[in-house]
Write a structure and sequence with these properties.
541 residues; alpha/beta; five-stranded mixed β-sheet; five-stranded antiparallel β-sheet; 20 helices; elongated
Amino acid sequence: MTTTVADLLVIEDLSLTLVAGKDGVGRPIRWAHVSELEDPTPFLRGGEVLLTTGLGLHGAGPDRQARFVEQLAGARLAGLGLGLGFGFDVTPAPLVAAADEAAFPVFEVPYEVPFIAITEALFSRLVNEQYVLLQRAGAVQQTLSRLLLEGRGLEALLGAYARMTGTRALLFDLHGEVLAAAPGATRALDPRASWAEVQRLRPEGNEFSPTLSDGEGHRSLLPILVGGAPAGFLVMARAERTEPFHQVVVHHLATAIALDLSKAQAVASTERRLVGDFLDALLEGDLSSDEIRRRLRFLGLGESRPLAVLVGRLETPAGAAGAAGDGADPEHALEALRRLAEDRLSRRAARYVCNVHAGAVVALLEAADLAEARGIAESVARGARTRGLAARFGLGAPEADPKGLRRGYQEARFALGTAASAGAHGPVATVDDLGSHRLLLALQEDAALEAFSRGLLGPIRAYDERQHGELVQSLRVFLEHNGNWESAARALAVHRHTLRYRIRRIAELTGRNLDRAADRVEFWLALKADEVLAGRRAAER
């Protein structure tokens, strides 16, 4: 029970008299302070009862006396005790009027009562209050620890906490499903509305504990962290305002829940192994449609919405290790990427599973179409950049047919593997982004691409090197403008006759005719082969 100004006023030995601010006597008292300064607020933290003889106000005008009270109220002090018989025999009327208006308690201290008597009485109550708080908190902690050791589960933890604190609580998993609820909690808290509040108020980081108040009471939100990452979210409701006792014991509850959930992580690791086995079997093509459906149902997926496949890979082990922290190895960095993906995927209503498989992070996620899946994937990619993880992602289009899930997984891995080497831009790639020519070229070995490019473009490059010419660039621009002489010449900032001369020179050097569609295609593919090779070399660096 928090000590208030009202509690201080009823101590008979002090003979204190309330003269103003009766509507504020419920203010809690944190400490007591004695000062004769005209403005002591820079040296106070709020919650104090200020004791003064008023010497700093003696001779001050009504405005100054009223402003003194306004300063104390604005600094969130608990109240003011005016010692009589020094500067004042009664409390000045302007001070009384200002205190009433601000609902700021002001009481008179008789000349015979020293301030030390007030501070001793108050400190005794505060010490006793802290002792009682520690006793109550210790009892809660012992009960929660016993239930945890007995393996009674999350429902028992929340039930005991509700009985001992009068708090109703819901515990959500990362998908918004209710993991546990205290008795009567679903009547005090609507699960769907509570989860919507968690999603709306959840910040970029994981450390947050907002308290909300409305006509229905007070609610607090708290993430349950296991290994530094959210494993669940606790939503608590009370009719009355939260007291220091509740602020202490809620952390006991959070610790007990975190320990219980950490045991559940062993089960989660088993689930991830099952996901890995499922992906292995899926790639091998050994599973029938019925078996795929059965395994998806076991993983909580595929009941109603199509499934997309997201595959993420760290760009370089060294960069990833640095991103994950000093001294971290690639395996730890990959695990950091998995946890980041889980964090981002958990911020939406649809279900998912996520695991590390074959050196990459793989997620199966519900999405209505490719646009929705891409939005989710880009959210994961943005999160990776924010955390300093250098990663790229491939996305397989959502599939409603279970057998199509294998194709989606292959598409995601193929898009991821070829995007960088094919010169694709952006952190998320799909096979649609790459284009047919990039897909064809990406399938070729470096030696084949180099031979093809050198055989067609070699004579032109040699000429450019000898004559400091620009035939290769002129060829590229000419093809990009679909053979339009005027627009290509403008892009090169040359006269069209100059461009015609360069194209004739290319034909002479190569024996090809750029008026023929087949020769144009070969030149264009040779230039694109150069881009693929350049992209591969950049990726290797």
